[in-house]
Design a protein that fits this description.
CATH topology: Purple Acid Phosphatase, chain A, domain 2
Strand order of the largest sheet: 7-8-9-10-12-11-14-13
Radius of gyration: 22 Å
Strand content: 15-25%
CATH class: Alpha Beta
Number of domains: 1
Order of helices and strands: HHEEHEHEHHHHEEEEHHHEHEEEEEEEEE
CATH superfamily: Metallo-dependent phosphatases
Structural class: alpha/beta
CATH architecture: 4-Layer Sandwich
Helix content: 25-40%
Number of helices: 12
Number of strands: 18
């Protein structure tokens, strides 16, 4: 039984372009750059600042506890000191539906929202942030429901009655409509302006900031808090931030049309069938459990985590088997990143660079570390960085091309560092912040070292995820505070904040900071 449907990459790109009226004549004639914003908080020139990072947060209450709200409360002491929050994707589970923004985003983060003291009055497509929240889309923010689920919902039959299960997957009557809910929640949804005069007035009111690439959107906390596009960049205190949509360049690399490739295809098909069998078995087991019983509620939570994990593995396998899916890669976005990184290195006032997107190129979480999408994103980002390195050359002064890469998708908190990979992604710090609310995952049994073609390419310095078994099981949900220090070469102090669910109680703590 298929739980989610992932749109084709070409559809994602086309739909999102329509929603922001990509390269509309009214936009082009004004010289507007739709991939740039200026964060107008009157403090962006101060060299030292702090910001928060969360990811994979968008779920409702688990069996007996609500980790997303707990993490949000954990951030409260840091709220006033931090300028903004970066979100690494999967804002809403399971299928990015507008139905779940109220419970899975607005209520948990109400302190960030204008009018948040009455969260029930805030519409998901009318949110204004007091403190900026700057997300990138995750795969779940694009997901839709298979047709059978949608038809059942339209017939007013609760989806959970369809399933032989008591698992709560945060699923309502529909999915994301190919990312439409995310676009209406966070992007400047220019498609809504039907009359040319209305669009022109809107552009002249909100696209007033000026940068080297032209006019751009002015993001004003407490007044106008929309993003110009699904991928974008902004400069803050001399740091260039690049926010990417990795959902459109994560298509698995083609299987070779050889005897070995055919054998691997058959192996993948068998693996998928076995995962489907196990998934149904877990769902049937869950039907026998009582969520009102504490011990059985814990088992239900574990089963939800397993089923969700298996569904993601099935999606990854299906993408490898689907030859049509692999025909499109978002070359326009990757070329944009290449050119903007080159411009950044040729701009004297820029002292550092941070990239953030959903799918991690490097990770040691048990289910993601060797997925086809992980390797595909690594390959495509590496190609971009190699191209940038050829142009920038010795101007880097021995520094890596990027100071820090932030990701989600893997449900954990992890700090890795690449070694000499033989490419321009060497000696970069990578932080996976994907444990801020949804079911946590475990560390892989193979350990902290990542190999590629029998060569050590990365090492994991820190991993925080689900661990222990039975009564000793720990679920450490997490977020980050990152302090950026002054100087021509910035230093970053990373402060992991952890809310751990252990023996049906919350234990909150701040881990020892580390410097990168």
């Amino acid at each position: 039984m298929k739980l989610v449907s992932d749109p084709a990459i070409a559809d994602k790109i086309r739909k999102m372009n329509q929603r922001v009226r990509w390269q509309d004549p009214a936009i082009v004639e004004r010289g507007i750059d739709q991939t740039q914003l200026v964060l107008d908080d009157q403090r962006s020139e101060e060299p030292e600042f702090s910001f928060l990072v969360v990811g994979d947060s968008g779920s409702g209450g688990h069996q007996g506890h609500n980790p997303q709200r707990q993490v949000a409360e954990l951030m409260q002491p840091h709220h006033q000191e931090c300028r903004f929050m970066l979100h690494t994707g999967d804002v809403i589970y399971l299928v990015g539906s507008s139905e779940y923004y109220q419970d899975n985003f607005i209520k948990p983060y109400r302190e960030f929202l204008l009018g948040g003291e009455y969260p029930q009055r805030i519409a998901y497509d009318r949110m204004i942030f007091k403190r900026p929240i700057l997300p990138v889309p995750g795969n779940h923010d694009y997901y839709d429901l298979p047709l059978i689920f949608g038809l059942a919902s339209l017939a007013t039959m609760p989806i959970r009655r369809l399933l032989p299960s008591k698992l709560d997957f945060d699923v309502g009557a529909h999915g994301s409509w190919q990312g439409d809910a995310y676009a209406k929640a966070f992007l400047d949804y220019l498609k809504a302006f039907m009359l040319p005069g209305d669009l022109a007035r809107h552009l002249d009111e909100h696209y007033t900031a000026k940068t080297d690439t032209g006019r751009c959107l002015r993001y004003q906390p407490g007044r106008f808090t929309r993003l110009p596009n699904r991928y974008y960049s902004f400069r803050y205190a001399g740091i260039d931030f690049f926010a990417l949509d990795s959902n459109t360049f994560n298509a698995p690399l083609p299987l070779p049309a050889t005897q070995e490739g055919d054998a691997y295809r058959q192996q993948l098909e068998k693996q998928r069938d076995e995962l489907e069998r196990q998934k149904m078995q877990f769902m049937e087991e869950s039907a026998k459990l009582n969520p009102d019983n504490h011990s059985e509620a814990e088992q239900l939570d574990d089963l939800q985590q397993r089923v969700s994990q298996m569904e993601e593995m099935i999606v990854d396998i299906n993408k490898q088997l689907d030859t049509d899916y692999k025909t499109v890669t978002d070359t326009e976005q990757l070329e944009w990143l290449k050119q903007r990184l080159i411009e950044s290195w040729n701009t004297q006032e820029v002292r550092g660079r941070i990239i953030y997107f959903h799918h991690p190129p490097y990770v040691t979480e048990a289910t993601k570390w060797e997925q086809a999408q992980t390797l595909a994103v690594r390959d495509r980002l590496r190609s971009v960085l190699n191209a940038v390195a050829e142009v920038v050359g010795s101007n880097r002064g021995g520094r890596p091309l990027v100071d820090l890469v932030l990701n989600g998708h893997a449900h954990c908190l992890e700090h890795l560092e690449t070694l000499d990979t033989g490419s321009a992604d060497s000696h970069i710090h990578w932080i996976v912040c994907g444990g801020s609310g949804h079911s946590l995952r475990r560390h892989r049994t193979e350990g902290p070292d990542l190999m590629e073609d029998q060569k050590l390419v990365a090492h994991s310095h820190l991993f925080i995820g689900r661990n222990g078994y039975g009564s000793q099981k720990r679920r450490p949900y997490s977020c980050l505070r990152i302090d950026v220090k002054g100087g021509s070469t910035p230093k970053f102090i990373v402060r992991p904040l952890v809310a751990e669910w252990y023996q049906r109680e919350w234990h909150n703590y701040e881990m020892q900071p580390f410097r990168i």
